[in-house]
Design a protein that fits this description.
This protein has about 400 residues and is an alpha/beta fold. The chain has helices at about 15-20, 30-45, 60-70, 80-90, 105-115, 125-135, 170-180, 205-220, 245-260, 270-275, 305-310, 400-404, and strands spanning about 1-5, 5-10, 15, 25-30, 50-55, 75, 95-100, 120, 140-145, 190-195, 225-230, 265, 280-290, 295-300, 315-320, 325-335, 345-350, 360, 380-385, 390-395. The structure holds pyridoxal-5'-phosphate.
Length: about 400
């Protein structure tokens, strides 16, 4: 995905022609970018050969899950729907982990029936429920326990998950009680210690702190976990020249950790696999000029991409054709929805735009389409996958009559 002579291309295809063929707003993914991301991720950590479980909540398009499965990744799911979908995509149960604070009995029973690798439990209450169901079914169930390491991921607070005031995981004290109470259970086998401290992490410090905590906890409780699941959270570059996670340092820290604790490592990356492999194409409807600001009103809105409204997230917005005159005036890119928070970006100098012009919103592959809604009774956008010079529809645009 790149500019060539001012025009944006997905692999070999001009972005404007994709917008013309499939309409806007439109999610577009690059097959080769996904492939590259998976290969890079595996390479960073190849010295200890982890099990990489793609976080399905970041993007659950069936075709994308099939591709990711084909590249050898497993899956991290958080609901029965996601579990059913990854099985349908051909991902093997022995590569699936199930996370989440509120798995209900139906979800637990289904996961047990499908014999997935691990149910990562997040509370004593959940473990009691798992044991009850396992006993009823006369089966032995492998579980992980999610530790809340009380580590600040130094990311936006709404996507921090590893501090003691967050709802996720159990405290160190609870963990040791659970181990004592369940280490000789007939129906539950404690196999894994899991953590996931948050998302869009761009500094190594939180990960190093997290490893330190896990190391200390394991030493104290003296229990051998077959797996250590370190979660996901690796950040991507939403803005040019933004701070980047140093994968080599993260890998070195984990290797150090493994010298003292010999376990198989599991990762659950979402954003770092799919985030920068997706673009949202959108058309300019109007340019509403006010004294201080030009509002560029797009045909994409917060129902299509909610991250800016929900987390104040910044996504770069560029024209598909960069050629033109530039004007020094404040520009605010907004959608048509009746909410002031339906605003994507505020910038200064920008190309003089015209209605009908096709724009790109970058890095929307993760937490984009999955968070879309029908707010304002707007149909959800279509999704297209590009492989070389061939665009294929991998999700049809919702039909307005169907949602009525
Ligand atoms: C959301 C989530 C992930 C993925 O996080 P990314 O930042 O997308 O890598 C992994 N594990 C758990 C438990 C999650 O909730």
């Amino acid at each position: 995905m790149y500019y060539k002579k001012n025009k944006y291309f997905f692999e070999k295809i001009n972005a404007i022609s994709v917008a013309k063929e499939f309409g806007t707003p439109l999610y577009v993914y690059s097959y080769n970018k996904i492939k590259k991301n998976v290969i890079n991720f595996k390479n960073y950590f190849k010295s200890f050969n982890p099990l990489v479980c793609f976080s399905v909540k970041s993007n659950s398009n069936l075709s994308i899950l099939k591709i990711i499965g084909k590249f050898g990744l497993g899956a991290d799911v958080v609901s029965i729907g996601e579990l059913m979908k990854v099985l349908k995509a051909g991902i093997k149960p022995n590569k699936i982990v199930f996370s989440g604070v509120g798995k209900n009995s139906k979800e637990i029973e289904y996961a047990i029936k499908k014999k997935i690798l691990l149910i990562n439990a997040e509370s004593v209450e959940e473990i009691i429920e798992i044991e009850k169901i396992a006993k009823k079914r006369k089966e032995i169930v492998n579980i992980g326990i999610r530790l809340n390491p009380d580590t600040d991921a130094k990311t936006i607070s709404k996507i921090s998950t590893g501090k003691k005031e967050d709802k996720f995981g159990v405290s160190e004290k609870k963990l040791s009680e659970i181990i004592n109470n369940y280490k000789s259970s007939k129906f539950i086998k404690i196999k894994c210690l899991s953590v996931h401290i948050g998302s869009q992490i761009t500094s190594n410090k939180p990960y190093d702190m997290m490893l330190k905590v896990i190391n200390r906890v394991i030493n104290k409780i003296k229990f051998k976990f077959e797996y250590i699941d370190l979660g996901g959270g690796m950040g991507i570059e939403y803005e040019i020249k933004q701070k980047k996670l140093n994968y080599k340092n993260y890998c070195d820290s984990i290797k150090n950790f493994l010298k003292k604790n010999n376990s198989k490592i599991i990762f659950e990356p979402g954003r770092s696999i799919i985030g920068d492999a997706g673009i949202l194409l959108t058309k300019v409807i109007y340019i509403k000029k006010t004294r201080n600001k030009n509002f560029v009103i797009l045909d994409a809105a917060m129902n299509d991409l909610i991250r800016p409204a929900l987390y104040n997230a910044k996504h770069r917005i560029n024209p598909c054709d960069k050629k033109g005159k530039y004007e020094k005036k404040l520009h605010e890119f907004v959608g048509p929805i009746c909410e002031t928070s339906d605003s994507f970006l505020l910038t200064k100098k920008y190309k003089k735009l015209k209605p009908g012009e096709i724009m790109l919103i970058h890095d929307v592959g993760a937490y984009g389409m999955v968070l879309s809604s029908n707010y304002n009774l707007r149909p959800k956008p279509a999704e297209v996958l590009i492989n070389g010079s061939k665009p294929i529809i991998i999700k049809k645009r919702q039909n307005i009559r169907d949602i009525i």
